[in-house]
Write a structure and sequence with these properties.
- The chain has helices at residues 22-26, 49-61, 79-88, 91-116, 126-135, 137-140, 149-158, 163-170, 174-187, and strands at residues 67-70, 192-195.
- Strands 1-2 form a two-stranded parallel sheet.
- Helix content is 49%, strand content 4%.
- With 203 residues, the protein is mostly helical.
- It contains nine helices and two strands, in the order H-H-E-H-H-H-H-H-H-H-E.
């Protein structure tokens, strides 16, 4: 629909030029020497999180030497997932558990992009792709295409039937090997960025 009197309330649809001064943003603390490090943007609804991520994405995509993967939000975890994990673990372990789960989900997403993304095809040999897929099929869950961290996280939680089974999965020693292998393959390939928005849209 048409924007209201105060502009489009949906940051995903709004015209960036109406809200963001690119040069001013680049001069801000968000675009310093470590602008491309891992970060989490938190704020109330309508505070500009999506606009910031869209501007950051546009700036990264202008650089042809990087790969930006926008994670679709079609497979977000639900309130039931969040409550289940909250009931399984005491408050003192909850943050660490979520960090582990998200880290594993992002790692699998990176591995599937190395395996199936056309942008990485030239950086891995056929043997390297076959080895990555066969050695870590248990963790990659026999993916046939690039997966987003959202998809992988949901699958990870859906496969766990108890706190013990979830911890057994995320603490599998194979994760360290997969991280090493992915890092080795990315060393000579373009940097890969996942931009994830609206993580809490469903709960």
């Amino acid at each position: 629909g048409e924007p209201g009197a105060f502009g489009d309330p949906d940051g995903g649809r709004a015209d960036l030029r109406d809200f963001v001064d690119v040069e001013e943003l680049r001069a801000s603390a968000f675009f310093g020497r470590e602008a491309q490090r891992v970060r989490v943007v938190v704020g109330r609804k309508g505070s500009g999180k999506t606009l910031y991520l869209r501007r950051f994405q546009a700036d990264l995509e202008a650089n042809q030497s990087v790969v930006v993967a926008e994670a679709p939000t079609t497979t977000l975890i639900t309130t039931e997932h969040v409550l289940r994990v909250a009931h399984w673990f005491p408050e003192g372990l909850l943050t660490e558990t979520w960090q582990l789960c998200w880290g594993r989900a992002i790692l699998v997403a990176a591995a599937t992009h190395l395996l199936f993304s056309k942008k990485y095809r030239a950086y891995l040999t056929t043997e390297e792709r076959e080895s990555l897929n066969s050695d870590f099929g248990q963790l990659i869950r026999r993916a046939k295409a690039e997966r987003s961290p959202f998809t992988t996280l949901k699958q990870l939680l859906d496969s766990a039937h108890s706190p013990q089974s979830l911890l057994a999965t995320v603490n599998n020693p194979l994760w360290d090997d997969l991280e090493t292998r992915v890092a080795q393959h990315l060393r000579d390939a373009p940097p890969l960025y996942f931009l994830m928005d609206a993580i809490d849209e469903e709960y």
